[in-house]
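Box 4.2: Ligand-aware structure prediction
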Amino acid sequence: MACGKVYLVGAGPGDPELMTLKAKRLLGEADVVLFDRLLDPRMLDGVRAELIDVGKNAGRHKLSQEGINQLLIEKAKAGYIVVRLKGGDPYLFGRGGEEALALQEKGIPFEVVPGVTSSIAAPALAGIPVTHRGMASSLTIVTGHEEPGKEAPLDWSAIAALGGTLVVLMGISRLEQNASALIDAGKPPNTPAAMVEKGGWPEQRMISATLGDIARKAKEEGIESPAILVVGEVVSLAQKLAKKKIAILRPAAQQNESAALAERYGFSPISAPAIVLAEKPLPEDLLERLGRAECVAFTSANGVNMALKRPDIRQALVEKMLVAIGPKTAQALSVQGLASMMPEEYSSKGMEKLLRNRCRSILFLRSSQGSKYLSEGLREAGLLVDDIPLYEVAPSGDPMLDELIKRARSVDIFAFTSSSTARFLIERAAAMGLEEELRRALAAGTVAAIGKPTREELSRLGVNVDVMPEVFTFESMLALLRELAR
Ligand code: SAH
């Protein structure tokens, strides 16, 4: 029988893409994988080995370190290739050294595969470089949770006397004592400090404060394990370097595309659909009414796509003069081979200017909640106006929206892409008893409105709008936000 071997493999801080190529390859070759509870299950996607969760899980007790060592030895002795997958780097506070010694003692071949350690990656992902020219030229990594009765306890005075950056792992349970110990040892209480929770996970969070305040704030914000404490001037760089979190409130069907675009512009997207579009049955006299109108206007790409599902409507549109309210709507028409015109301004004035001397009757194919001002203004200008609702905008009832409302304080930017996203977000927060908190978060963060009707609805709701692009598309909104983030 071939001899077994154990690989002590670092899995990185959490994001499966931050595993090394070697880790990935070995997972593919392993017969057995021993992993910890906290690892992202996606890391094991497609792995055909026997999977053993050595962390705590339902109904079973956590294996002791001795138990893990024994299991590694047993599996290797049976001739298997064993991957022991550990968070971050296996030799940094990961007890990887103990496992290696146990294997060495039994004469079992083993190899360590270093990983991206959370002590550097979690600050980095939160916008904190652990060293920075002129600010910190050393990094000290310590454990905040020492085992009782340890021979060499941490010398907090020596640590406090060091300049540079201090990173404390396993630091939640003793955060208050450790921060006090540093201050008692002479570290100024106003030294910048941050906690990075779940670095590299989708739910990554950071709070920043001062050394004197960090324990209180961490408690207030309910910071949980795994999290690390960073102390030092470098923490202040996060203000500029951290990715801004942007809440995207569009319907679920547009979330993926919008999130990808937000990432492209350097933001960290949070999907939170506030609305759904429910298609409405079309009236029987639709074709007649289409026939009567000289011009047909669409106000959204969604409307275009819904209407063009019917070949007879498409046919009727070919002969019409088409108006698209914005570039995305025009694009949706053009993809279908239909040319359209766009008003210079999204208002009845803008429309009137566009239609003057061109046509006398217009049919809107749009949402049932479309702006009445537009049609009224055109009627006043002497046009014949008809309006057929294609769909209705309704509250989404999406759990991701509730999640966003609960965590609104950690959102940097709220992206409102229609007046209904504004209305339903606030209504939902009110129903959850969190309206006041949401309003505070909106006031503290950046509120972006895609266009004028959205901006007006937000003001009507008492929400101050900080940003509105000149061209009413989601992408121009992102471009403007990027520009303002400088
Ligand atoms: N070997 C690991 C550290 C193990 S000790 C490494 O190199 O990253 C476990 C501690 O690491 C946790 O208590 C926490 O302080 C820190 N930690 C691990 N993963 C983390 C993450 N994704 N974000 C923040 N801290 C993390």
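In the box above, the bound molecule is S-adenosyl-L-homocysteine. The pocket of S-adenosyl-L-homocysteine is lined by residues 13-14, 87-89, 92-94, 117-119, 122, 169-170, 196, 198-201, 225-228 (CB under 6 Å).
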